[in-house]
Amino acid sequence: MESILEIKTVNKAFGAQRVVRDVSLSVKRGEVFSLLGPSGCGKTTLLRMIAGFERPDSGSILLDGTDVAQLPPNRRQVNTVFQNYALFPHLSVADNIAFGLRAEGKPKIEIQEEVHRMLDLIRMHEHAHKKPSQISGGQKQRVAIARALIKKPKILLLDEPLAALDLKLRQHMLLELDRIHDEVGITFIYVTHDQDEAMSLSDHIAIMNEGVIEQLGTPAEVYELPKSRFVAEFIGDTNLFPGKVASVEGSDYCHLEVPGLGKILAYQDRPVAPGENVTLSLRPEKFNLSREKPTVPSIQNLLPGVVDTIIYMGSETRYVVRCGEFKLNVLRQHNRCLLEEKPITWEDSVWLTWHADDGNILQSTNGTPATTPNADSAP
Amino acid sequence: MKPSRVPLYTTLAVLAFLYLPIVVMTVQSFNAARYGGEWKGFTFSWYAKLFEDRSIWSATRNTLVVAISCTAVSTIIGSLAAWVLHRYRTRLQRLHYLVTYAPLVVPDILMGISLLLFYVNLKILLGLGTVILAHVTFCISYVAFVVLGRLQDFDYSLVEAAQDLGAGWGRIVFRVLLPVLGPGILAGAMLAFTLSVDDFVITFFVAGPGSSTLPVHIYSMIKHGSTTVINALSVLFMTVTFAVVVISQFFSRNRPVH
């Protein structure tokens, strides 16, 4: 698929603070692309540069092949859904939606038809005459989307669109956004600090930190193969093992010597050399937890531990297991927990196993040190 | 324990202190007695007399001319000042704020004297023009701060949304800014109008012959006696001012924007 947006080495500073640093990325036509990161990481500034509210200090923003970096917002074929919706409080829902076409000076009949079509899309015909103060948060959200989509933008920019909604409504709106995206087929660029939103909606995610893109990939890629410690910790929970490569086993595997834990076998994505300091990331759900010592093939790692904390969460249970000098986060899906003869409880001795392929050796990229001990999982 | 009656009595005392003189004046304006004191029956004759007095009509006309022109000018300049104070962050902004704020705290008599000296030094003839200019100088500040208050709740992303949807500045001003900020601007204008109508001290200094406004005229009437007509005039005056204030309160009341 061809790309609709190409950002090339864009920089932006406010005073002495460089909020976006040499960012390059490309967005494919029709996809949902997320910019994900903590607040202050530069994602909103990047979005505002795509929209035209900020001009980049250097670099280019190619929209469908033309550089729009220096054009004002009203001369770009992108539209924005604002975080607080920014609906015009004095206009009705229908007039809000019509605003963009009236600004273009489109004939009345055409505007009416388009507004009608948009009200169909967001299923809000019965509220067309209401003022924004008379509708709910989720409805305002839909109106803001319709108001932007009526301009038939090449890209729809969404700036933390669900941040103001409560959890239930957020989940509902995620499905709604997905449906609207499927119906209109316009490229979405979605800014959020919520990894669940980004994971469930996006085709690609760019994870930003301190003005740079730490990693760009599909949701599965960034979750399963985080490149840096920042990504590993920002997307989901993880356990980090800082260690040294003890020996390389064939072309695919290596043994790590982890101080305070012992030797563990890990898959090597990238060639490593004995003596190299690396950090292994292991997601909590990759562990297998059992009371009896299992017999495992040599490709699995096996560690004894003691249950420290149990957090029952209904669909799953979180365990914190003391293992050597580490406290490990372990996630276990329920399989008939009430029927178990002797359920695992506090201070039980347990065995942890995981497949060597499930660990991921981080690359220390972008200056993020991958070898500093992690405050959560280190002793 | 019985609830204390102190708050009730305090409230009544304060209300009496504030409003009893006005009540007395209002009652007296309908009293047939020439010099007040005792009640000699109900009459409208002071009001009738009021309407026959040509000098009062001319003072009223002056007052309206001054108030309307001053309101128009200070609303425009004051609203723009509020927008600039709200929107831009420069090092001079604190100074701008101070300059705008000063007329609210400088005593009227100082304003009056300094304006008079200013006009005299520049050899400007005192007349309606000088009164209007004087009123504009302090009304701008009031308008600016009323509109600034509205702007605190104003969400600038509305402007960005309009730009994003392809609107130019003309459309943004007339279709977004004015409708949303309108109530605040109107409240500021009403306040400017009442302040201009009410002002005595500053006007007293800068009004030339034939350009005295109602408050100044009332003051000179007191010197010539005839308090009963003044009572009637004051009651009418107060009613109009009160109506304007009530209307402006109605518009400036915070209504939910989102």
List the helices and strands and how they pair.
The complex is a heterodimer of chains A (379) and B (258).
Chain A: E1 3-14, E2 17-28, E3 32-36, H1 43-51, E4 58-63, E5 66-67, E6 78-81, H2 93-104, H3 108-122, H4 137-149, E7 155-159, H5 167-184, E8 187-192, H6 195-201, E9 204-209, E10 212-217, H7 219-224, H8 229-234, E11 239-249, E12 253-258, E13 262-267, E14 277-282, E15 288-290, E16 300-312, E17 316-323, E18 326-333, E19 349-355, E20 360-361
Parallel strand pairs in A: 3-8, 3-9, 6-7, 7-8
Antiparallel strand pairs in A: 1-2, 1-4, 4-5, 9-10, 11-12, 11-14, 12-13, 14-20, 15-19, 16-17, 16-19, 17-18
Helix pairs in contact in A: 2-3, 2-4, 3-4
Chain B: H1 6-29, H2 45-52, H3 54-87, H4 93-105, H5 108-121, H6 128-152, H7 157-164, H8 169-198, H9 201-206, H10 214-223, H11 227-252
Helix pairs in contact in B: 1-11, 2-11, 3-6, 3-8, 4-6, 6-8, 7-8, 8-11
